[in-house]
Amino acid sequence: MIQYNFYKNPATFSTEEEISVMEFLFKHLEQYGDAKPDIQKCIDYALGRKGKPGGIILTAKDERDIVGAVIINFTGMKGYIPENILVYIATHNGYRGRGIGKRLMQLAIEQTDGNIALHVEPDNPAKKLYEKLGFTNKYLEMRLNK
Questions:
Q1: How far apart are CA 83 and CA 73, in angstroms?
Q2: Residue 6 predicted with pLDDT over 90
Q3: Residues 17-66: pLDDT tens digits?
Q4: How far apart are alpha carbons 62 and 44 in whole angstroms?
Q5: CB contact at 8 A, 101 and 68
Q6: What pLDDT, on a 0 to 100 scale, did the predictor assign at position 70?
Q7: Backbone CA torsion sign across 114, 120, 126, 132
Q8: How many independent structural domains does the chain possess?
Q9: Is residue 47 part of a domain?
Q10: End-to-end CA distance of the chain
């Protein structure tokens, strides 16, 4: 049985859990992932550290291990930028196809106020899930990497 956990308050999120989420995302984001220090920055932001607006962290666990995770950061901007950005979502590769990612997305949508933005690579299989949940591709993202 999969148990879903919601974290918004840093006091309810143990250091052990934080490290587990960071390690899980690093491993299971695979080619769509980031370096551990960047994932940690996202966790810090979601937990409202250093004056950041905060966010939410959702996990899915089997009896003892994380099998899915989502991090959404609040932008603090309403109207011209979505209020939330889904930064990371991953499902354990041994648990994919069981609806865990879909349920995590549904919970993330329920637990946030306002619009949600996310970035997805065109070849990412999760793109179909996002579209089924109502996400649309309104803009083409452009970046200047310096």
A1: 9
A2: no
A3: 999 999 999 999 988 889 999 999 999 999 999 888 899 999 999 988 99
A4: 25
A5: yes
A6: 96
A7: positive
A8: 1
A9: yes
A10: 46
Domain for residue 39, yes or no?
yes
Distance CA 75, CA 126 (A): 23
What is the length of the chain? 146
Contact 93, 125 (CB under 8 A): no
Look up residue 122 and give its two tokens: 């065109």
Please provide the average confidence, as pLDDT, over all residues in the chain. 89
Phi, psi of 134 (to 5 degrees): 105, 0
- SS3 readout for the chain: CCEEEEECCHHHCCHHHHHHHHHHHHHHCHHHCCCHHHHHHHHHHHCCHHHCCCEEEEEEECCCCEEEEEEEEECCCCCCCCCEEEEEEEECCCCCCCCHHHHHHHHHHHHCCCCEEECCCCCCCHHHHHHHCCCCCCCCCCCCCC
- For residue 79, what are the domain limits? 3-132
Rounded to an integer, what is the distance from CA 140 to the centroid of its chain? Answer: 21
Cα-Cα-Cα-Cα dihedral sign, residues 1, 46, 92, 16? negative
The answer as to whether 143 is a domain residue is no
CA distance 119 to 62: 28
Residue 8 lies in a domain: yes
